[in-house]
Design a protein that fits this description.
By secondary structure, the chain is α/β, with parallel strands linked by helices. Helices cover 41% and strands 12% of the residues. The relative contact order is 0.15.
């Protein structure tokens, strides 16, 4: 299966971000802690050239804890301010204000020397679809400022949010990039729900996911579905279908339903804390 998704509204969103970047002091980029590199849009590096940057490893509760620490070290070595957070519970969110001050220290000092006081830092919140930007903003603000959802494309346009006298946020829609040079990147993005599931062959996605989990999470799949690993992922999907009673008329297996169960279990963390990208592979 070819993993690719770039609907027309993303072109419009990218244009809007280009037009507003001149107003921005800082880019706060959210990534999925389970795939910290694959979930970074390379276009944001181009867009944010010369701007202060912070990377937030969101959904850190769904990723392997030891890997989170390794990724924090990775970004630190790259000279990138980073923090692991959980937008749903608010874990780590309070530390962001201090990180903003560190990342924008030079800008704040320039303002001070010019006699500019009480001018808030303007930060663009950016990231791919379904990485949790709106949930993060609501958690950071302590109030419901934006719509949230567990599927891509909930945020449609830009929105300025005044958090306090020191910080303003520009919420932006989730944007992918026109073409994935590496199809593994597209596959990983499909795993976490950053693409529209309606364009994906879910049985193939589930088999690809099982291939990845075979190496990183053997026990969790066996325990969750009370099955033993088989030689092929297609056989495994059939076993999951039997285990979960996914049966059609005529006793045929409903593999599409089994695929949906598997992907949902992974996305929600019911298979355990799993990281599919490791810093040593970067």
């Amino acid at each position: 299966m070819n993993y690719q998704w770039y609907p027309g509204h993303m072109t419009k969103a990218k244009r809007m971000m280009d037009e507003n970047i001149k107003l921005i002091d800082l880019i706060i980029e959210l990534v999925d802690a389970r795939i910290p590199l694959a979930s970074r849009n390379p276009d944001i590096d181009v867009l944010g050239k010369g701007k202060s940057r912070i990377v937030l490893l969101n959904k850190s509760d769904l990723a392997d804890g030891a890997c989170n620490k390794q990724w924090m070290g990775y970004f630190k070595e790259k000279g990138i301010y980073a923090l692991e957070i959980n937008s749903k519970t608010g874990a780590g969110v309070k530390a962001i204000n201090g990180l903003v001050q560190q990342a924008c220290a030079q800008k704040l000092e320039r303002d001070r020397k010019r006699g500019i006081v009480n001018r808030p830092v303007r930060a663009m919140v950016a990231g791919i679809p379904n990485v949790g930007k709106s949930t993060f903003i609501n958690s950071f603000a302590g109030r419901a400022c934006t719509k949230t959802g567990n599927k891509p494309g909930v945020t449609k346009g830009k929105q300025w949010i005044r958090l306090n006298r020191n910080l303003e946020l520009l919420d932006t829609p989730g944007v992918l990039w026109p073409k994935f040079e590496d199809q593994r990147v597209g596959m990983l993005l499909a795993f976490i729900g950053s693409m529209n599931d309606e364009i994906i062959i879910m049985e193939e996605l589930a088999c690809d996911l099982l291939d990845c989990l075979r190496e990183s999470s053997l026990g969790s799949v066996e325990e969750r579905y009370q099955i033993a690993w088989k030689e092929s992922s297609a056989e495994m999907l059939s076993e999951i279908a039997r285990s979960r009673g996914c049966i059609l008329k005529g006793e045929n297996l409903d593999l599409n339903k089994a695929a949906a169960i598997l992907t949902d279990d992974f996305r929600s963390g019911r298979l355990g804390r799993i990281t599919l990208e490791k810093p040593k592979e970067a």
